[in-house]
Design goal:
alpha+beta, 2 domains, 3-stranded antiparallel beta sheet, two-stranded antiparallel sheet, 30% helix, endonuclease, hydrolase, HNH endonuclease, HNH_nuc, endonuclease activity
Length: 220
Amino acid sequence: MEGQLQGRTDHLILRHKQLRLELLVFHRRTKEEYFGAGFRYEGAFCFEDASGSKPTSFVLKRERADNYDYDLNVVEQKLGNEGAFDPSDVTDSRERTFAAIVQRRGQTRFRAMLLKAYKGRCAITGCDVEPALEAAHIHPYLGDQTDMISNGLLLRADIHTLFDLGLIWIDPKNLSIQISERIRKSSEYASLDQRLLTLPENLSDHPSKAALEFRMSSKK
């Protein structure tokens, strides 16, 4: 990511830990991408490296998954500030609900590519209920260049959430499914542990090992 053109706030990113500041990343490609000119929340990050100036290019690393409870609380508080329920605004609420579903499923084109590559089945559970399947990015979304089949997985909605929270991940060495101790008590999720990921027929569509390694390293 790039800082401000004149670098006036660069020090806040460079010294965010010393200043006890959180780096919460929100992203959108265009103002019209999400309903209500909203952003997609990417999570909490920490400063890793910087180069250049005016603007400075920053490399950020996703914070450990252990912090996800706090991250979600921050977002929930912000969403809660949108206002109390208004019965006269039911139509608007339905539009927001549908928009949220579309956003969560992933960009339409990206999701369509994954549905085709994985033949309409969740890569982890095998679920074939299409309305419940979502397009998950392995490496966090950073624009169109990350909307590649090899940087995506077709996942059931609950699995997508757990994947984004770092509670489910894929071992890049053997493509086995790994389940966090935090959810292994659930018999349903425990049964997925060590299973092999279902792969697309085309080798070029297989998940990028580099992206899987990045995802796994971001948990540490």
